[in-house]
Amino acid sequence: KIPLIIDTDPGVDDAFCMLLANSSDRVEIRAITAVAGNVPLCHTKENARRLAGMMGLRGTRVAAGAEKPLIVPQETAEMAHGKNGMGGLELPETDKELDLLPAWDVIYEECKKAEGEMQIVAVGPLTNIAIALLKYPELKGLIKHLIIMGGAQTTGNHSPYGEFNVWADPHAAEIVFQAGVPMTMIDLDACHMSYLTDEEYDTFVGMKNRYSENFFEFMAKREEERKSRMAGTPFAGKHSPPDAVTIAALLDEDLFTYEWLPVSVETHGPCMGRTVVDYRNREGKTPNCRVVRGADRQRFVNLFYKMAEVYAK
Ligand code: BDR
Description:
- The protein has 313 residues and is an alpha/beta fold.
- The protein has twelve helices and twelve strands.
- Helix 4 crosses helix 5 (127-135).
- The mean pLDDT is 96.
- This is Inosine/uridine-preferring nucleoside hydrolase domain-containing protein.
């Protein structure tokens, strides 16, 4: 099994990411580390704890991390995720406890234990990962692969070029991109290529399972409201929770095709948070990131259907 850490700011689509990860018998979630992002840390750590409890992840460590971005002022995304991050859904209480150590120490300890096999899926601002890499310089050699949900090859969703996660902490993102860790960027354009149609989403929600009532059906109602907000955007008629797409890239290596390219992050000015992909390598830098170039959308749909089947048992 692939040892996995999910660094996350739950977040509605973060919850989809965790549920999808946990439906796979190919991964073992060793830790869930919470970061501030979609909503403040007080909510993201609580949601992470409750989601871990809901999924029965007894042996998985859940730790709280950064409360604020490294340098820029904090901005959150309640508009998309509601005040509590779960769109108003009250997740079931749990006796699952938060780790006594902060996220960066848990990340380091778990990577050390995994002896070079650890994969990290980071679906929030990259503050925890940047702090971990700064605090433990040897950490970069212990991460087998890092897959992030972040960035955009064309336009942003939070500013003209800024995708929310990278935009929310651009300095952390730049530290992570330049750290020398093998990494994959599942950016907004990749998410546009990998989605469920309205019909497929309805089919998925109709596949009753143990999380239908306390999660998927509630989220389906929210998607109805989201439809009007998305009208006229590239996401209209597409159900593509970005963080779930990101874990899907780990679960199915053939979902996307990739190219290794040099990528850097703009940390100031009107393009702050932009992920600059040097497609023609004009700057002659060593490629540091796998960038998505194509997708086989049906594979994503299949993973969702499979998740519903697994949880129906
Ligand atoms: C990303 O930002 C957040 O709102 C989502 O959870 C996702 O990680 C999409 O830009």
